[in-house]
Specification:
alpha+beta, Nucleotidyltransferase, domain 5
């Protein structure tokens, strides 16, 4: 019998394989959320390098966001990752939701990144 942890790992593997097929050389916007924070990275899988990163732990966001675990914090992280991606010369990415359901904080981060200029 599979545990919850095993099922999550299976979802992540399935999602990552789908992203690999669809990426066509574009970097991956990977999202991780914990109970208290949300993290985003833009990763070039071909070279194995992180091009840009942002999180609700960043000192630039801590002052402006009251709670680091709500949709407002996710929106702020999405805008920040879009800014940092543009500075790194990245315009198009593939969104990796990491096995999480596309709703709530994940959706808020993705929408904010799109508004910031990232295309996916």
């Amino acid at each position: 019998m599979l545990t919850t942890k095993d099922m999550g790992a299976r979802r992540r593997r399935r999602n990552r394989a789908s992203i690999r097929r669809k990426s066509k050389g574009r970097p991956r916007l990977s999202v991780f959320r914990s109970g208290r924070h949300i993290y985003a990275q833009i990763i070039d899988d071909g070279r194995g390098v992180t091009l840009a990163a942002a999180s609700s732990v960043d000192k630039t966001l801590k002052a402006s966001v009251a709670k680091s675990w709500d949709k407002a914090a996710a929106t702020a992280v999405g805008k920040l990752i879009a800014e940092r991606a543009k500075a790194a010369g990245v315009g198009e990415v593939v969104f990796d939701r990491g096995g999480y359901i596309y709703q709530g904080r994940i959706k808020a981060l993705a929408d904010a990144a799109r508004e910031g200029g990232l295309a996916f």
